[in-house]
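Lecture notes, continued. The same structure-token format from the folding unit now serves as the input rather than the output. Read the line below as a description of shape only.
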């Protein structure tokens, strides 16, 4: 895992994008504006790593492909947090996004108070299908800190320890080549 500071200009750009565009174009479980903002921030930071700029919502729905690198389609999944990420943490993935034609998932956590993004790791869709755990809508899940929440949609989980670890932007790019 590695953590980077998020440029305030990127955050402001993402706020404008979320105010102008609805990034929850699914039939259900579209996420709140705050959840959409978290996702757009994570996606924009990772896009910027690869020289792809920031998210531009005017192009419409991206079919689950946030960027392409080394001929691989990549979907960036970002969870919002108010604590630093730990290796034992879990990443959530909505089942209804499973049909997208994506080769790679990059899982991130955005610390909303410190405004830093942690790249937790990445995994191929093929490996994700093998390693993930499924929880139907309404399941009660227990977090790392022993608090609980009820799933609002069918959900997959994968732990940080099951992702390919990366130590830097360069390491991430080299592993994805």
């Amino acid at each position: 895992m590695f953590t980077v500071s998020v440029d305030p200009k990127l955050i402001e750009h993402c706020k404008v994008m979320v105010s102008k565009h609805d990034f929850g174009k699914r039939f259900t479980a579209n996420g709140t504006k705050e959840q959409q903002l978290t996702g757009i921030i994570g996606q924009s930071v990772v896009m910027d790593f690869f020289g792809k700029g920031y998210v531009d919502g005017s192009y419409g729905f991206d079919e689950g492909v946030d960027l392409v690198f080394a001929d691989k389609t990549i979907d960036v999944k970002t969870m919002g947090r108010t604590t630093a990420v730990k290796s034992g943490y879990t990443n959530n993935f909505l089942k209804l996004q499973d049909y997208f034609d994506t080769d790679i998932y990059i899982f991130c956590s955005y610390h909303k108070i410190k405004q830093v993004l942690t790249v937790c790791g990445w995994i191929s869709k093929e490996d994700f299908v093998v390693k993930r755990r499924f929880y139907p809508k309404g399941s009660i899940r227990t977090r790392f800190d022993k608090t609980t929440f009820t799933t609002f949609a069918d959900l997959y989980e994968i732990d940080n320890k099951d992702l390919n670890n990366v130590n830097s932007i360069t390491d991430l790019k080299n592993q994805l080549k």
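Point for the exam: The chain has a mean pLDDT of 91.
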